[in-house]
């Protein structure tokens, strides 16, 4: 759990530049109506989308928790994001502004602006190409690309055909890629020669090759040339994208497939507490409905806006709020390839100034990183175009909130912290400056959006008292919810719908204050958030025990000033191995190679014993308390299945080992 600061429940900020202001009582009154009539409410939003065929049933809830939204309806996500704008006055409007990372000299600077008309042409051509591989509705393709325009283009082209895709973040390792591609049974992989990050080339094709040697289902690989490095090309399997496109006619038209509302748009993997990553399956109709509602209400998107979400499309934030959300609204979405502080700490502010960004969506880790460089870097640029800010990914500390609110928000623009997760498809708890705005508070997530019934439960599944910690739950189905976990419906039921009867368990600790604002405090399970990215401690532990020297391992998250949380490992060595600084480094490298660079261990403690309950569960809170120096009294009541005495003893033993 990462919140270790006081929550300013009583503070209220009314941004002077905001419209749609209401007091919290009015908000709750109107919100309650939307929740009582949630099916009608969501149907009224969905009606604003161009369906090929209207739905017959708003919600099929006959087989919970496998809910289906807008049953009988037919639509196409690519048509909604591209065709309808390309066939309108938006044809020459910029859909995507892309800025590449390299910035050393004037000549290396790359900016691409793709209009809706051009996007239509490219997406059709790529759809034609994918079709030539025989791909069709029901198939899955894998995408392992850096932040270049081809990434959204391939996503859109796949959805045009009704082909599902699974994007793997380009910072993931070969093992992580192979595991996901095998689970998804991907038939084709789209990757690149490399990607730019912090002035260096990430050798994506090389990593993909290593993964491909373990992938059973991938028969073809399309390689986009980005860095122009020499790469190995397997004969009969790999082709360069630009080469392939030479034989695709310039103005082909590929009819968008009429897919069912509850067909699969994509599968995106998330870390869990046990076992392999879970493939979250998202539908088309419900997902787009939630994105439409939140683009309007949370982001207040207007046709005149330049909108920038700083996430990577490899995560759900980018899927929803760089690609599908903004494009379905016909907005101009900015996509930046690399590090926000490369080559200088003010790169991100220079992008805002250069492109006149109006709406800015970023993360607490990014903000804390900028704070370290000092406010002078922000002040070098004109940021007066900014009219709305949101944050996402982890709890935002009030200090970081205030810093960005002052420097970027000039203390007058709405600034919120939107809560959601890969599973929810889109934002569920947030301020809604595009609809009704209630006063801000530094660090809060605000109230749930309309149509969403959220609550905080105690251990027994009863509503928790205000200002007391409990578990975040969603009490009614919402559009955008997962269809299931790919190929594992039982696990879907068990992970999200069995902790409390009939409600969705998010896995987060939360408190609700007296105004009904939510404050999400961090994960209640064995998932940690490193720089806003989700990492299952289990994945790190299984990587560690694959090492020849490791007998047992426990990984816990500890607070970190910059990244929110970082993993530390406790390792019991096998007979014949002795602790050393080298081994520590080796184990760290080992984990990074198996999981990816985000899995960097802050420390490795060599111990002779791990504290366990009688049912052999590692007492994680004891382990964590020892690292952060929390008194044992704070943990004795939290560890299930162990007596206070046992916890105390385990704590002291471990403490002795760590200090000794
Ligand atoms: C977890 C989901 C979907 C956005 C990117 C992360 C944490 C997310 C907030 C926020 C406090 C937040 C939760 C959640 N989280 N947004 N605004 N305030 N915590 O998606 O990787 O699926 O992670 O991120 O702990 O459960 P994700």
Automatic annotation (TrEMBL):
Any matching Pfam family: ACAS_N
GO molecular function, one term: acetate-CoA ligase activity
Span of domain Acetyl-coenzyme A synthetase N-terminal: 27-81
Keyword annotations of the record: ATP-binding, Ligase, Nucleotide-binding
Keyword Disulfide bond carried by entry: no
Organism in which the protein naturally occurs: Candidatus Marsarchaeota G1 archaeon BE_D
EC number assigned by the record: 6.2.1.1
Gene3D superfamilies, per database record: 3.30.300.30, N-terminal domain of ligase-like (3.40.50.12780)
Stored NCBIfam families: Ac_CoA_lig_AcsA, PRK00174.1
Similarity comment: family membership: Belongs to the ATP-dependent AMP-binding enzyme family.
GO biological process: acetyl-CoA biosynthetic process from acetate; carbon fixation by 3-hydroxypropionate cycle
Name of the protein in its database record: Acetate--CoA ligase
Alphabetical list of SUPFAM superfamilies matching this protein: Acetyl-CoA synthetase-like (SSF56801)
Cited CDD domains: ACS
Domain AMP-binding enzyme C-terminal intervals: 539-617
Highest taxon, organism lineage: Archaea
Occurrences of domain AMP-dependent synthetase/ligase (ranges): 83-478
